[in-house]
Amino acid sequence: MKIVIDAAGGDYAPHEIVKGAAKAAQEFGVEIVLVGRKNVLRKLSEKAHSKHGKQHVTIVDATQVIDFGEHPVRALQNKPDSSIVVGINLLKSGEAQAFVSAGNTGAVMAAALLALGKTNGISRPAIGCFLDTLSSFPALLVDAGANADCRPEHLLEFARLGSIYSQHLLGIPRPRVGLLNVGAEEGKGNRLTQETYELLKNDADIEFAGNVEGHDIVKRTVDVIVTDGFTGNVVLKTIEGFSDSFLMSVKEMGRVFSSASRLRARDLLRDIGLGAWTRKMDYTEYGGACLLGVNGNVIIAHGRSQAKAIKNAIGLARETVERGITEKVREGTHGKTGGNSRS
Fold first, then answer.
1. pTM of the model
2. What is the reported pLDDT for 40?
3. Orientation angle between helical segments 307-322 and 15-28, nearest 10 degrees
């Protein structure tokens, strides 16, 4: 398996990207293609090689970088030799099976749409992001930020995409789908959620569990949480902010008590049962989110991703390829529409 990595995308690129890719190549046994400035990546790869041993890593030159603040479409037009464009084109040509980027999310989405195209039956691709909070298994949030303005038929498509993804990646036979809303009762919410509720309720292919409220997210009452990308991104960043604060507090507590007990902070947290909890609250454990509804395996990593998150994003890419998620989505959405052909 060959996975392309945008080595120029992200706050900590290229150093942390290369480190994470080297660890992934060693741990997962995949071949890595790093895309970015060749001279820089060669030196960093040699350093990683000396630390992690021999890995299957190749380098493809890309002289341009799309920054986070750039307009996605204009950036793609003005920077055809950017790491995102070059990497997506490697996926399109069949030279690789997946693409991972911690760079400009809008540019990754636009490049994937232009080069790979949308899956038949899907008018709006969406970002599916796992929320691993306090429950035994993660819930999937769709859409986590790809589509700020949506219509009811788009949310129906998100429910289908999320159901297929959870079914084949997590092995859930019939995932329970919940609609994020301000109340649990039918008839609650704005026009978008009310009309979406009717579509979800009447779709035989979806195991619709009704509305879920914000406090239900941490309880894992459903397997898939459906919402528009604006709301989903706010939810995601709220959880990330809480997680960051929680982890900082736990680490500080660990340092204080470890100095008193003469135990390492990590060992102390494990002994008092907080080790697993801190891992659940750490977004780097999952590393990335899948862009669902395009004809290719594209993983979007957090812009602040460091080596651990990149390694796990590559692990998610490997799982996505091995389980044939793109093919399963294509089969599951073929010939279906959200009730309206407008995009």
1. 0.86
2. 95
3. 40
